[in-house]
Amino acid sequence: MRVLAAMSGGVDSAVAAARAVDAGHHVVGVHLALSETPAALRGGSRGCCSKEDAADARRAADVLGIPFYVWDFAARFSADVVDDFVASYAAGETPNPCLRCNEKIKFSALLDRALGLGFDAVCTGHYAQLRQGELSRAVDVDKDQSYVLAVLTAHQLRHAMFPLGDTPKPAVRAEAAARGLRVADKPDSHDICFIPSGDTRAFLTARIGTRPGAIVDTSGAELGRHDGVHGFTVGQRKGLGVDAPAADGRPRYVLGIEPVSGTVRVGPVEALDVHAIDAAAAVWSAGAAPAEPFACTVQVRAHGGLAPAVAHPGVDGRLRVELGEPLRGVAPGQAVALYDGDVVRGSARITAAH
Amino acid sequence: MLPEAVAAMCEALSRTGNASSLHSAGRRARRDVEESRERIAAAVGARPSEVVLTTGGTESDNLAVKGLFWSRNAADPRRVRVLVPGIEHHAVLDSALWLAEHSGAQVELLAVDGAGRVQPETLRAALAAVPETVALVSVMWANNEVGTVNPIRELAEVAHDFDVPLHTDAVQAVGILPVDFAASGVDALTLTGHKLGGPYGAGALLLGRTVELTPLLHGGGQERDVRSGTLDTPAVVGLATAVELSVADAPRRAAMLSGLRDDLIGKVRATVGDATLNGDPGTGEIDGGPSRLPGNAHLSFPGCEGDSLLMLLDAHGIECSTGSACTAGVAQPSHVLLAMGADEATARGSLRFSLGHTSGPEDVDAVAAVIGQVVERARRAGVSR
């Protein structure tokens, strides 16, 4: 096959590309330039957007002996991922930009271009397994990224390649070292790649501005004021800015965000319990939506948040999930991914939790 | 590199000696350097004392633009304007912009015509408005992307009518076009080794004997006190050999390359009907040479992303380039085409094919054989924005 390997400059995508070469594919490496103003050197833990990262990717491609190009997707990334991220927070949601990047950039803009140029697949260093178009969790459960890939359609999965899903991360690093890849001990990237400071609230405030609103308790009584709903996410405990302790002395959590009035509702931890989830824009890994409700395991955020559930596919991509046991910290804007054991059935965007 | 230049350089590498030293090994190295300087001077119509040896085009351009500005501005603080066309190489353009940021310069981008050429009347109009405020003019001899040759002798005359010095980046010209430093009348001229079959990291700034220039590098006072630093004698010997040979052989190669180039352009356009040639058509004559670089074919392919073309051609073993690349390797729309008035989509959908002394008809045929399917596929992949 002709395989286009997306190479971030990190150890995972370098080893993934190497494995694609070993498998006998004709591999071309591409680094996606996603920042419109890339820094010269990598800063902190963000490992994909500086010129140094592009150089690391190029160095790895040279070691593998494959052609390498840098493609500029900065404008697409800015519009489809960064702007979406900001708009989602402004609407009181909690977006997942990595998921959006997979959906809109890596397996959309990049895949479309790759297919147009005659490639058969896009290969990445994601930790997930893919067999005959069926996506499932990686063997390294700590690294498993099937959640941020659950948004991929059957078509996208047919043209994807995740060579690392069967290997624990330490083994991937050892393999990189054995292959002579200098990125073998490069630190893992964390946080959000396009927020170099790591200060998400400051990043959002600079783009959204100040939109004061009230912080209220479950009875509706105002406890304090805030500068904008983008500073809050459902389940958040710290940094609420409410000085007076609760009457019962217990910590308060963000229970819900009402973006139009800018009201943030806080309350005790048990009020976070969610028993049902409404979601939209459902994607089914096998193609068509299941006709009948089915039992599954759901995951509502990138790490953790698992529960048994029954999924009820609706019309127009809508989905209702009845949880078998309550979940906390279910935030609109995040994805609800549906699993049959370790196999991904599909996902949808959370719109409401009850 | 030319085999003769490799041989001369290898021989020199086995000898020791600092050309600035007084002992016998130093004398031997100095003789190598000075003979090389004389050979370079003779080949390009300069005097040996006018050859300032450098590490190549970027250094020579920086030295000329910044050195001329600082010296002229120090002599008369009213001289703040730097006149350069937008088609210049970044070594000139960014030096000028650096001066604007750090030394109080005002950069004025001279307009170019649709072929990317600076017309003498454009320069005259820019100078005539308060000529005493102009520090320098820099116009490249021939453009590295679209191949258009500028009327340098005429432009130097115009600059001198206003007592303003003119620098030219002749990196693309020396060794293929007839370049005579004295006859051109320019005050400073950049040349570099690796563009004419010489070593990387060796070049020169030809600098008129009366031209004052503030140095970039300070130290031992080598090279007329203009460029300190121990000379790389073997590289200088390799450079001189390559300059001498390439200049002597230029008419033959120019005729051969322009024939191949026209064949390439004709065959590409016969297959891809809407492909257009950028820059001068190459049928005219300027200062006794062709009006376009003989080995340069720069073409736009509507509806294609240059990146896609590059990758698809590379897969067929055909190496070409899309213009300029920043250090991250992100292809930018060519600043040369934009300066010529092209829109961004056209600038992004363009490719440069460079032919050199190793090129032959079989290379042209190889491009002709695949260009149709490559363009078709690139169009299908679309434009990514």
From TrEMBL, chain A:
One cellular component GO annotation, for this chain's record? cytoplasm
Q: Which InterPro entries match?
A: MnmA-like, MnmA-like_C, MnmA-like_central, MnmA-like_central_sf, Rossmann-like_a/b/a_fold
Keywords tagged on the record: ATP-binding, Cytoplasm, Disulfide bond, Nucleotide-binding, RNA-binding, Transferase, tRNA processing, tRNA-binding
Instruction: Please report the stretch or stretches of sequence annotated as the tRNA-specific 2-thiouridylase MnmA-like C-terminal domain.
Output: 275-350
Q: Does the keyword Transferase apply?
A: yes
Record's subcellular location: Cytoplasm
A GO term, aspect molecular function: tRNA binding
Pfam families xrefs: tRNA_Me_trans, tRNA_Me_trans_C, tRNA_Me_trans_M
- An annotated GO BP: tRNA wobble position uridine thiolation
Q: What is this protein called?
A: tRNA-specific 2-thiouridylase MnmA
Q: Where is this site: Interaction with tRNA?
A: 126, 334
Q: What is this enzyme's catalytic activity, as reactions? A: S-sulfanyl-L-cysteinyl-[protein] + uridine(34) in tRNA + AH2 + ATP = 2-thiouridine(34) in tRNA + L-cysteinyl-[protein] + A + AMP + diphosphate + H(+)
Q: What does this protein do?
A: Catalyzes the 2-thiolation of uridine at the wobble position (U34) of tRNA, leading to the formation of s(2)U34.
Note the superkingdom of the native organism.
Bacteria
SUPFAM superfamilies this protein is in? Adenine nucleotide alpha hydrolases-like
Q: Where is the active site?
A: 101 (nucleophile), 193 (cysteine persulfide intermediate)
The gene name on file is mnmA
User: What EC number(s) does this enzyme carry?
Assistant: 2.8.1.13
TrEMBL record, chain B:
- Which EC number(s) does the record attach to this protein? 2.8.1.7
* Listed Gene3D superfamilies: 1.10.260.50, Aspartate Aminotransferase, domain 1, Type I PLP-dependent aspartate aminotransferase-like (Major domain)
Cofactors named for this entry? pyridoxal 5'-phosphate
Q: Which UniProt keywords apply?
A: Iron, Iron-sulfur, Metal-binding, Pyridoxal phosphate, Transferase
Q: Which family does it belong to?
A: Belongs to the class-V pyridoxal-phosphate-dependent aminotransferase family. NifS/IscS subfamily.
Give the matching InterPro entries: Aminotrans_V_dom (IPR000192), Aminotrans_V_PyrdxlP_BS (IPR020578), Cysteine_dSase (IPR016454), PyrdxlP-dep_Trfase (IPR015424), PyrdxlP-dep_Trfase_major (IPR015421), PyrdxlP-dep_Trfase_small (IPR015422)
What is this protein's name?
cysteine desulfurase
Reactions catalysed, semicolon-separated, are: (sulfur carrier)-H + L-cysteine = (sulfur carrier)-SH + L-alanine
Aminotransferase class V domain segment(s): 5-367
Q: What Gene Ontology molecular function terms does this protein carry?
A: cysteine desulfurase activity; iron-sulfur cluster binding; metal ion binding
